[in-house]
Amino acid sequence: MRNRIIRLIEADAALDDKVAFLTGDLGFSVVEPLQEALGERFINVGVAEANLASIAGSLAALDFRPFIYSIGPFITSRCFEQIRNDIVYQRRKAGVIGVGAGFSYGSLGPSHHALEDATIMASLPGMLVGNPGNVAELERFYALAQAVDGPAYFRIARESGVDFPVPIFSLETSAYSVRAGDDATLVACGVSVTECLAAADLLAERGVEARVVSAPVIAPFPTAALARTIAKRGPVVSVFEGFPGNPFSVGVMRTLYEHRFDNAYAELTTPHRFEHVVGDTQALRAACGLDAASIAERTLALAAGAAPRRRVEASR
């Protein structure tokens, strides 16, 4: 997805000379085509994320459309105050691109794991937050973000995700089924949709037809749209690659509560801790119960009548 968002910005910049791109000395081997295309509108501020955000806010005040780019924790935690005060509070139109959602940078360790970034960004009033599950969803969310008069956070993984049909969506319709099924509902965003689709295959082998729902817009959460997609019977399992209390999981729970669903429910997130074990992306997902096999087993347990739990903690 990293390569695709660079191409989207490049195409956008070819039509609008107000598009600018700023990086904190990251993205090289990916951003060079954009650097060549934008010329002086491409700015490398160095390892100075606070300056990165403040410069973007100033450019937006001059009617530029800046995008700032870095790894998820760096672009959110290291310059939260500047994003809050110089971009969001001022209602500036700017794109904040956090690469490496969840465990995408697995073996690089907790400094590079983006598990709290969505919660941080969604806490800001007026910040649009998207976590696309594949390249097609990224393209749709990019178009939506450009049509909204305000800032947007792009929570994108290093992986591209699997192909599934993606409709044109608005803020009100950004939750939709990508696989049919009436025995259970798996709700996810980002590359967790890929894991849910694989889990649905495993469940089908056990006689359980699971509906898979993608909700790529985290904030504002599409409560009404999600309510229309949930199966009337069977368990509901939400999957989010991040800490508990994140806006996606809370949005799913709020939907179930406000629309009076009585389905058994489980929230699958990472445990609320830093992972000190070394492992690649898939190993960390398996350790935290977020891989396809774990999702399928949790769904089967609920379908068999096990009491719902708020989240799954790693047992390892």
What does this protein structure show overall?
This protein is α/β, with parallel strands linked by helices and 316 residues long. The chain has two domains: 2-156, Thiamin diphosphate (ThDP)-binding fold, Pyr/PP domains (Rossmann fold); 176-303, Rossmann fold. It has helices at 2-15, 32-38, 49-61, 72-76, 80-88, 117-122, 135-147, 192-205, 223-229, 247-258, 281-287, 292-303; strands at 19-23, 42-44, 65-71, 95-99, 128-130, 152-156, 176-179, 184-188, 210-214, 217-219, 236-239, 265-268. It is globular, with a radius of gyration of 19 Å. The chain starts with a helix and ends in a 13-residue tail after the last helix. Residues 306-316 have low confidence and may be disordered.
Short structural summary:
The protein is α/β, with parallel strands linked by helices. It has 12 helices and 12 strands.
Tell the overall outline.
globular
**CATH architecture verdict of the largest domain:** 3-Layer(aba) Sandwich
Distance N terminus to C terminus?
A: 31 Å
Mean of residue pLDDT?
A: 94
Number of E-state strands: 12
CATH class division of the largest domain? Alpha Beta
Structural class: alpha/beta
CA radius of gyration is: 19 Å
Fill in the CATH topology of the largest domain.
Rossmann fold
Q: What is the share of helical residues?
A: 25-40%
How many helices?
A: 12
What order do the helices and strands come in, and which of them pair?
Blueprint: H1 2-15, E1 19-23, H2 32-38, E2 42-44, H3 49-61, E3 65-71, H4 72-76, H5 80-88, E4 95-99, H6 117-122, E5 128-130, H7 135-147, E6 152-156, E7 176-179, E8 184-188, H8 192-205, E9 210-214, E10 217-219, H9 223-229, E11 236-239, H10 247-258, E12 265-268, H11 281-287, H12 292-303
Parallel strand pairs: 1-2, 1-3, 3-4, 4-6, 5-6, 8-9, 8-11, 11-12
Antiparallel strand pairs: 5-10, 7-9
Helix pairs in contact: 1-2, 3-5, 8-12, 9-10
